[in-house]
Amino acid sequence: MTECDRVIPLDVVSLHDSPSDCWVVVFDRVYDITPMLHEHPGGMEILLENAGRDASLAFQGVGHSRAALAALRAFQVGVLPDAERIFSSARPGHLQIARQASSATLLYTP
């Protein structure tokens, strides 16, 4: 098991919500984005607004490219447990997403 395969529940992700320790979830994968806070083209504030929680809708909502998703992989520290996964597949680029909690449908097809 690699570090990227480490299972990290949302309650643990939620503890990492500050400028000195910033984690987010995007498409069921957990990322430590602390090192990129000051380099994000959209500004650090938007990242901190989503710190410690699932940022998938925010990430998709601004239309990040495949390149942005690929760049994010360098910061992956784990995955959500199966019971907490929202998306039908954790494989970016192959997601047909139905988010039941918000009754919104999000299709990710880069």
UniProtKB/TrEMBL annotation:
InterPro entries: Cyt_B5-like_heme/steroid-bd (IPR001199), Cyt_B5-like_heme/steroid_sf (IPR036400), Cytochrome_b5 (IPR050668). Keywords: Heme, Iron, Metal-binding. One of its GO terms (molecular function) is heme binding. Residues 5-81 form the Cytochrome b5 heme-binding domain. The keyword Metal-binding applies. Belongs to the cytochrome b5 family. This is Cytochrome b5-like.
